[in-house]
Amino acid sequence: MLKDNLDIATQKITYSLVIPCYNESDNLEELVDQCKRLLCDRQDVEVILVDNGSTDCTPEMLRDLLKNFPTLRIRSIRVKVNKGYGYGILVGLKECVGDVLGWTHADLQTDPVDFSIAVSLLEQTKNLEQIFLKGKRLGRPFKDVFFTWSMSLIEWIILGVRMWDINAQPTVFSREFFLSWKNPPNDFSIDLFVYHQAIRRNLSIKRFPVNFGLRLRGQGHNEKLISKIKYSWKTVLFSLALRKHLKGY
Predict the structure, then answer these.
(1) So where are the chain's domains?
(2) Domain 2-246 CATH superfamily
(3) pLDDT score of 206 more than 70
(4) CB within 8 A of 53, min separation 6: which ones?
(5) What pTM was computed for the model?
(6) Which of 24, 206, 219, 236 is deepest in the core (most CB within 10 A)?
């Protein structure tokens, strides 16, 4: 009976949103509430919460928060061992049933309901396979904007393409585009990889404004200066490797 109900539910799904969660127990209750608002607004959307190898009480909290929600359009899956932010996203994307896929963060700095903005924009086009959508963060501190500008300049120098606010969310694209990826990275470089692939495939890049607030609880991976420097260095190394790989085409 559960499989029959799932089959009926997924027949109506056009858009799928993945949210990787790693040790986000402090934010989960509010995150699930926001996801429920998204699902109430859109009957053709599903949300997949990926417990990305959390070592806190995230698994138990997700089970409790979702057990009484009367729809199969929001569910969680568990990655037993954390293999990276990108890995969690990829696991979630493989579970999606929609024709249009996307992801966003679990830290509540951006609202999952922003996904509905992307959906509305997509409904205005006939060729979903040729569109790549990404949020454009508003309300960020000057130092973060400067850091983003600097990284965009470095990527332009290394890869020869203009990419701005690479890590903005949500990121939304067609299933066809997802199936075209070859060897996507398992770490935070996945945002750069997918953005760059969209440009290489000559997709129409659409950006839309989203409010970007402070993290409500807990600490993100990239908030301290030393973390930003380490992340930037890893991104540069990935970009250099990507450039070398592209020369082989």
Answers:
(1) 2-246
(2) Spore Coat Polysaccharide Biosynthesis Protein SpsA; Chain A (3.90.550.10)
(3) yes
(4) 22, 79, 80, 81, 82, 83, 88
(5) 0.86
(6) 24
Q: Which helix (H) or strand (E) holds 182?
A: none
Query: Looking at this protein, which amino acid is placed at residue 161?
Result: V
**Secondary structure (3-state) at 172:** strand
- Which of these, 176, 218, 213, lies nearest to 197 by C-alpha position? 176
Q: Report the C-alpha gap between 57 and 228 in whole angstroms.
A: 27
pLDDT reported for residue 249: 40
Amino acid, res. 57: C
Task: Identify the three-state secondary structure at position 52.
Answer: strand
What pLDDT does 222 receive? 52
The string of DSSP codes covering 62-116 is HHHHHTT-S-SSEEEEEESS---HHHHHHHHHHH--SSEEEE--SSSSS-TTHHH
